[in-house]
Amino acid sequence: MNKYSYTEKKDTRSGFGSGLLELGDKNPRVVALCADLTGSLKMDAFAKKYPERFFQVGIAEANMMGIAAGLTIGGYIPFTGTFANFSTGRVYDQIRQSIAYSQKNVKICASHAGLTLGEDGATHQILEDIGLMKMLPGMAVINPCDYNQTKAATKAIGELVGPAYLRFGRPSVPVFTPADQVFQIGKAITFTEGNDVTIFATGHLLWTTLEAESILREKGISVEVINIHTIKPLDAEAILRSVKKTKCVVSAEEHNMLGGMGESIAHLLATKYPTPMEFVAVKDTFGESGTPDELMRKYGLDTPDIVNAVEKVIARKAVEV
């Protein structure tokens, strides 16, 4: 690849842990709560340095959300931490009633999302969480792509007033965004410019998309790759600007195709600029046990799947034009 490369791999959950610690150093109002998964969420450094601002609630996720909502009333900025499945599906009623409805300043931070959780299997591989959270009025939904972006996003939601959902993962993935980046909530990032097709990617699928872009470039296809790290609020201006140039779209995400980033983009395009579109996402099914690489291949989220989706949507564009 010409522009993007990496020298190391890190898990995005460690980016969250690092960002949380820096927030704690900067702002004494930042507190953290965890549901018996301190090590897995990489919250141990914060807990060790600021024990008076860390609350281990045990395996009681619903109670954790209620405590977090209450802490905001005292002026604190609570960050909750557990697996994505338990951060959303298990506690949806508490989030809706105690946090979203009254716009409490709670930061819901969720690790081990998607198929790349791997061998833990379908019960833990939540693929519906983005949909669940984006439907809540006023909830920001953020899905960063690597260690550095996750760290920056963690610090950014600490400055945001209102509820936010931050999604990240367990596996080590390439670190390819700048360490000194400033994360702007709701502002998409263009990674490569192109004229033939736009690929909107989020989370772990951004690096896979950049790999696909390299292959497609060798085939003579000019690809615009845009990182949609913020699914809500969606950067409608950036999306429409790119699509009006390329006239066809592929979305790529580690989530159910129903309710995810692609669905949000499709809604925008249907109402503002109807465009041929293909979806690289899980096709309305649960996952299963397996290595992350095996699962990404089986469920159609690998580099060749993005290449195929691009070639398919370009063919559709040619017919429709």
Rg, Å, rounded: 19 Å
Kindly name the structural category: alpha/beta
**How many beta-strand runs?**
14
- Unreliable spans are none
The succession of helices and strands, N to C, reads EHEHEHEHHEHEHEEEEHEEHEHEHH
The dominant shape is globular
Percent of sequence in beta strands: 15-25%
Main sheet record: 7 strands, mixed
Q: Provide mean pLDDT, rounded.
A: 96
Number of helices: 12
Helical residue percent? 25-40%
Strand order of the largest sheet: 3-2-4-5-7-6-12
Outline the fold blueprint.
Layout: E1 9-11, H1 12-26, E2 30-34, H2 44-49, E3 54-56, H3 61-73, E4 77-83, H4 84-87, H5 92-100, E5 107-111, H6 129-134, E6 140-142, H7 147-159, E7 164-167, E8 172-174, E9 189-192, E10 197-201, H8 205-218, E11 223-227, E12 230-232, H9 236-246, E13 249-256, H10 261-272, E14 277-282, H11 292-298, H12 303-320
Parallel strand pairs: 2-3, 2-4, 4-5, 5-7, 6-7, 10-11, 10-13, 13-14
Antiparallel strand pairs: 1-8, 6-12, 9-11
Helix pairs in contact: 1-7, 3-5, 8-12
Question: TL;DR of this structure?
Answer:
The chain has 321 residues and is of the alpha/beta class. It contains 12 helices and 14 strands.
Describe the protein in words.
The chain has 321 residues and is of the alpha/beta class. Helix content is 40%, strand content 20%. The protein has twelve helices and 14 strands. The strands form three sheets. Strands 3-2-4-5-7-6-12 form a seven-stranded mixed beta sheet, with helices on both faces. β2 (30-34), α2 (44-49) and β3 form a beta-alpha-beta unit. α3 runs parallel beside α5 and α8 (205-218) packs across α12. The longest helix has 18 residues, at 303-320. It is globular, with a radius of gyration of 19 Å. The model has no long low-confidence stretch (mean pLDDT 96).
